[in-house]
Design brief:
By secondary structure, this protein is α/β, with parallel strands linked by helices. The chain has 15 helices and 12 strands. It has 2 domains: about 250 residues, Type I PLP-dependent aspartate aminotransferase-like (Major domain) (Aspartate Aminotransferase, domain 2, 3-Layer(aba) Sandwich); about 140 residues, Aspartate Aminotransferase, domain 1 (Alpha-Beta Complex), CATH 3.90.1150.10. The protein has a 7-stranded mixed sheet, sandwiched between helices. It is globular. The structure holds pyridoxal-5'-phosphate (PLP). The site of pyridoxal-5'-phosphate (PLP) has 16 residues, from helix 4 and helix 5.
């Protein structure tokens, strides 16, 4: 990707707080005064730029974070939410009405899968789950009712890569909105530059990076973001997944170091993936030549941020996986916990945790094996030391 650097776009934002502070002042109000009644009317109609109405609609602190995330993804606008699901579900409900259809990758975040399969279906929105790496299968699933093509840049937990540029060609041909969840690959991939219409993040993960809150964002055209916030029919405005101003200010402060963190996460994950693959473990990491989408992903990424911090190891059985995770935790190599993007390594067995919404037959057919451990590699300063300690755990348990 030339001439687009998301970290520069974040660095180049300039803020002056209410009192000249280097951070913008945090807005601490649910409601806002108007000097004239006419302006209040115009604001309700959506025509008064710079006027705030009520904090479920917009607040100064949330708009700062919206602006920073839109700059990062290269979209016109953005709308933050109180969680990643608080961004995903309203976005899909805004795009789809009763009778509409979604074509989705089958390897997506468990909550998104459950929303589409069990919840949206109650309102007559049907979803076909497909192997997103097979473009002919994707296209064949499209019907006259299809409105949305949904995927994750790098899928959870199998780390399959979606060819966003080619999916966007299919989406345009059939007049669909291509919605991409970019949670696993902030800065590394800029989906809107590759043709995605809407980019979503769970800010809970890398972007906030301190595992102290849940948060989300939808990045899209000004028109779509306004539609989400419309007081009469906007899903975000009416379902109300509003982020609190205090939180949005703290997420923004963490966003500013994202580029440094991503480089270290990627460096560490590549280091471990290469070593464990050499040791003979079945290792999945998009930065490895053995990854089926390595070539494709190499063309998609903003190179300096690397291939990301997520990898999987298959240690054969669920018993092995559980023993290894418990031992690694007791040796302080990380935490047995779901989620990702923390300074410490986090590990979990997706089949029995984050992807447990997916029925076991489906898990098997998509290659989600019992012995699979998903690791979100931390910011360890000395990754060689970490490698040796992890390897010792594996040797002790007879896994290596
Ligand atoms: C965690 C996650 C979500 C959901 O985000 P929350 O902040 O937990 O609501 C969505 N997509 C992906 C890829 C995730 O990892």
């Amino acid at each position: 990707m030339k001439n687009f650097n998301p970290a520069d776009n974040i660095q180049d934002l300039q803020y002056f707080g209410e009192f000249g502070g280097v951070n913008p002042s945090i807005s601490d109000s649910s409601t806002y005064t108007f000097l004239s009644a006419k302006t209040m009317f115009d604001t309700f109609e959506g025509h008064a730029e710079g006027c705030y109405l009520y904090s479920r609609h917009a607040s100064p602190s949330n708009l700062y974070l919206d602006q920073a995330l839109a700059a990062m993804e290269g979209t016109e606008a953005a709308n933050v939410a109180a969680s990643g699901m608080g961004a995903i579900s309203p976005t899909l409900l805004q795009l789809c009405s009763q009778g509409n259809h979604v074509v989705s990758s089958r390897t997506i975040y468990g909550g998104t899968y459950a929303f589409l399969k069990n919840f949206a279906s109650r309102f007559g929105i049907k979803t076909s789950f497909v192997d997103i790496t097979k473009l002919d299968v994707v296209e064949a699933a499209i019907t006259p009712e299809t409105k949305v093509l949904y995927c994750e840049t790098v899928s959870n937990p199998l780390l399959e890569v979606a060819d966003i540029a080619r999916l966007s060609i299919i989406a345009k041909k059939h007049n669909l909105q291509l919605v991409v969840d970019n949670t696993f690959s902030p800065l590394s991939v800029s989906p809107a530059r590759l043709g995605a219409d809407i980019v979503i993040h769970s800010l809970t993960k890398y972007i906030n990076g301190s595992s102290d809150t849940v948060a989300g964002v939808t990045c899209a055209s000004r028109e779509f973001i306004n539609s989400l916030k419309n007081v009469n029919n906007g899903a975000s405005m009416l379902l109300g997944p509003t982020m609190d101003s205090l939180r949005s200010a703290s997420v923004m402060k963490n966003l500013r170091t994202l580029h440094i963190r991503m480089k270290q996460h990627s460096y560490n994950a590549l280091y471990l993936a290469e070593r464990f693959e050499k040791d003979g473990l079945k290792t999945v990491y998009p930065g490895l030549k053995s990854h089926p989408s390595h070539e494709l992903y190499s063309t998609m990424i903003n190179r300096e941020y690397g291939f990301g911090g997520m990898m999987t190891l298959d240690v054969g059985t669920l018993g092995n996986a559980n023993e290894l995770m418990e031992l690694m935790q007791s040796r302080n190599l990380g935490y047995l916990a779901v989620s990702l993007g923390f300074y410490k390594t986090l590990f979990s067995a997706p089949g029995t945790s984050t992807s447990s919404e997916i029925p076991s037959e489906e898990q098997a057919s998509m290659g989600l094996t019992d012995g699979l451990i998903r690791l979100s590699i931390g910011l360890d300063n000395d990754i060689e030391r970490t490698y040796q300690m992890m390897k010792n755990c594996m040797v002790e348990l007879g896994i290596l």
